[in-house]
Amino acid sequence: MIHVSLTNLLLLGMIVGLALLGCFWLYAVWKERRQEGRARQDLVSCRICGNIYENLSRSPMTACPQCGSLNEATKPKPI
Ligand SMILES: [Zn+2]
User: Fold this and answer.
1) Rounded CA separation 61/66 (Å)
2) What's the 55 CA to ligand 1 centre distance in angstroms?
3) Which residues cross the membrane (predicted)?
4) What pLDDT is stored for residue 1 in this prediction?
5) 20 to 30 A Cα–Cα from 49, which one of 1, 32, 64, 76?
């Protein structure tokens, strides 16, 4: 049988709890970034007026609904 003092047992429990909490936190951050990346995939930033709009046609060149200039469908820079 392994002899473990109460102090070591509590310390071990705290370490395991903190490790689990860290894993949940990392998973939540990863999930949030993935959702944000998916949401931003269809967004196009106009290089003339700065308007950010959704590219529903999925074509490489889209016209800005505000100023009418043609824009290449690239991801807008992160905020
Ligand atoms: Zn524009």
Assistant:
1) 15
2) 13
3) 6-30
4) 83
5) 32
* Ligand 1 center from residue 71 Cα (angstroms): 8
* Same domain? 52 vs 36: no
Structure tokens at 67: 């100023």
Tell me, what's the pLDDT at 72?
Answer: 86
Range of the domain at 5: 1-40
In terms of Cα–Cα distance, which of 14, 50, 18 is closest to 71?
A: 50
Greatest CA separation for the chain: 77
- Looking at the chain, how many residues does it have? 79
Whole-number Å distance, alpha carbon 27 to ligand 1 midpoint, is 37
Residue 4 to residue 21: CA distance in whole angstroms: 24
